[in-house]
């Protein structure tokens, strides 16, 4: 056995797919940032698909468990355990609820004895309530998450949620907040957008995220209708998802079809964010929203719902952004109109936020993961 092999930590990173969400972006940053001299990395996917699949670093081996349909899910823990037995990693790190459950099942019921770390990127007591089979998922979370060797929470609020609502021992939880690659954000934000939505006469309000109930885009569109009563402004929502038809119908119903644009997923949202007057996050819940950090790096003012969890751990109200109560259309309308009426104040918020984003670097996030991995890689 070579000294090089002994020196490297063999890490399996597990995800359902490489769809274009925040957790997948964080995984990409980890795969790019972890030191290759100390880590041998393999990405394990249930399905080899997703908008971010082509962004996986070329030196990362990808192993697919070939999930075929919903019923095939019952075989995933066995396939994962079999692959773990074959490659004998030092540790298995999974992101997102589905992958986390499969990671625990593969460990505890196929008994492969490899340490497992699960990473939680949402406020589960809220996020699971709006999903199908929510009661079963809550039960599974309470049963299986405490069985992990270590649980990563992306915010202090998410940590409290795991302790209070899902019986995860405090001693097993490490809080590692997400970070961003400021240089990459700056580079991509300098590119020219493909859309011609921008001109000098009409401000653009932008939002980015999956078109799902979590993101509260229905609230944003209803609020936008009130904003339009006093201001000539456009709304741009970047992202794709199951709520598209409903949101398009709502826009048409409110007479906003000519003023609301939803072009779908775009590979470079930063160029649109940088050129927009204002970013609005209308979410009902989050984990630790990376997008707020990316917007801060772009220098665009932010208004966000103060949802659980993350926004109030990132934004200082009325200093680096504006926080409003979840579901309060009137408060969101007032906040948007106030910034439209006072662009100098909006600019001031953005400038302070752009400086504060230095607190969430990719280097800090990667280093914290490396320290945690080292704990289980002897």
TrEMBL record:
<keyword id="KW-0808">Transferase</keyword>
<dbReference type="Pfam" id="PF13439">
    <property type="entry name" value="Glyco_transf_4"/>
</dbReference>
<dbReference type="InterPro" id="IPR001296">
    <property type="entry name" value="Glyco_trans_1"/>
</dbReference>
<protein>
    <submittedName>
        <fullName>Glycosyl transferase, group 1</fullName>
    </submittedName>
</protein>
<feature type="domain" description="Glycosyl transferase family 1">
    <location>
        <begin position="191"/>
        <end position="355"/>
    </location>
</feature>
<dbReference type="Pfam" id="PF00534">
    <property type="entry name" value="Glycos_transf_1"/>
</dbReference>
<dbReference type="InterPro" id="IPR028098">
    <property type="entry name" value="Glyco_trans_4-like_N"/>
</dbReference>
<feature type="domain" description="Glycosyltransferase subfamily 4-like N-terminal">
    <location>
        <begin position="21"/>
        <end position="183"/>
    </location>
</feature>
<dbReference type="GO" id="GO:0016757">
    <property type="term" value="F:glycosyltransferase activity"/>
</dbReference>
